[in-house]
Write a structure and sequence with these properties.
Elements (H helix, E strand, L loop, with lengths): L7 H8 L3 H11 L5 E2 L5 E2 L2 H15 L4 H15 L7 H13 L3 H14 L2 H21 L5 H21 L8 E6 L7 H12 L3 E6 L4 H8 L3 E2 L1 E5 L3 H9 L1 H4 L6 E4 L1 H5 L2 H5 L3 E2 L4 H13 L4 E2 L7
Parallel strand pairs: 3-4, 3-6, 6-7, 7-8
Antiparallel strand pairs: 1-2, 5-9
Length: about 300
């Protein structure tokens, strides 16, 4: 039971939100809902205080007050046993918003998703399916290249923000994440980078279309425990096969992933590395087993010609 214990002045002191604003929210959005004393004074519970602070954070992030109130109320309903709005519904709305270049609505949908679901669920059940649907629509000729680029760019921007927000207290290994040569599809690798950061790994993210020679040169003198390389196209896989001799000279565990290796997992071993497979959360657990058998090292060896 949410027992009222704080006066409006005490809530104002703890939240830095003026009492007039709290009363305005209560009148406009039916939120918060403090109890009343016999004399008519408002008393706010611990839940009310936490919900007010949540609403303040959403507003500080640019979410309109009306929408912020709705998100907080939905989260409360979920905590009381009422299922939150499913991510599959949000996915359809997000695809529509991005298809129509509506970044404002897209931001609201993503903010709501984060308020109601875990980061892992938002990544794997909202952002990834949204990207796949946008790609499918483009391949079917139902979406322009401009809209596909807009949607992908929007999602990549959000993922880069999540990487920055990941834990800075690394208790695990240091990893370098990169796309294969000619590989331009990087959102899958970005999602992995976010999940690894949340799992406590140090992540250096290099991005799309990285030449293997540049990766090799970068590794010299760089402390790392492993390299992860993503390939989703035949062209990028060909770029890796062309550089097989150089890849075999890298004295670190190399983890290969992406659609190319999902279809031909045996190629990972041929290229001197490992294939972790799917689903992604189980793959991260396998990664820990591989890296824990290795010692962190400073790579120092002649640059290949």
């Amino acid at each position: 039971m949410n027992q009222g214990k704080y006066t409006v002045n005490e809530i104002e002191e703890r939240s830095s939100i003026p009492a007039t604003t709290l009363r305005q929210w209560e009148r406009r959005y039916s939120f918060p809902k403090p109890s009343r004393t016999e004399s008519g004074y408002r008393l706010y519970s611990e839940y009310d205080l936490e919900a007010i602070l949540q609403m303040k954070r959403h507003i500080d992030d640019g979410v309109p007050a009306s929408r912020a109130a709705e998100i907080v109320k939905q989260k409360h309903q979920a905590s009381q046993g009422t299922s939150p709005r499913p991510l599959s519904d949000m996915c359809q709305e997000l695809v529509s918003a991005l298809s129509h270049f509506d970044d404002g609505k897209a931001n609201l949908i993503i903010s709501e998703a984060h308020a109601l679901h875990t980061v892992e669920a938002v990544l794997l059940e909202l952002l990834q399916p949204t990207l796949e649907q946008i790609g499918d629509l483009w391949h079917q000729g139902k979406l322009s290249i401009a809209a596909e680029h807009f949607g992908s760019s929007h999602l990549k921007g959000h993922l880069h923000q999540l990487i920055k927000l990941g834990t800075a207290n690394y208790q695990r290994k240091q990893l370098i994440l990169t796309c294969a040569p000619y590989e331009l599809h990087e959102i899958g690798l970005l999602i992995l980078a976010v999940l690894l950061r949340r799992a406590g790994y140090g992540v250096s993210y290099l991005g799309a279309d990285t030449p293997i020679q540049d990766l090799y040169n970068m590794l010299q003198g760089h402390q790392a425990d492993g390299v992860m390389i993503s390939s989703t196209t035949a062209q990028s896989l060909g770029g890796l096969l062309e550089q097989k001799s150089l890849l075999l000279q890298i004295p670190l565990p190399i983890i290969y992933g992406g659609r190319s290796f999902d279809n031909l997992p045996q190629l990972a071993k041929e290229l001197g590395g490992y294939y972790l497979g799917q689903p992604i959360l189980e793959a991260i657990q396998k990664l820990s087993q591989i890296l824990n058998s290795q010692n962190s090292q400073i790579i120092s060896y002649p640059s290949a010609s």
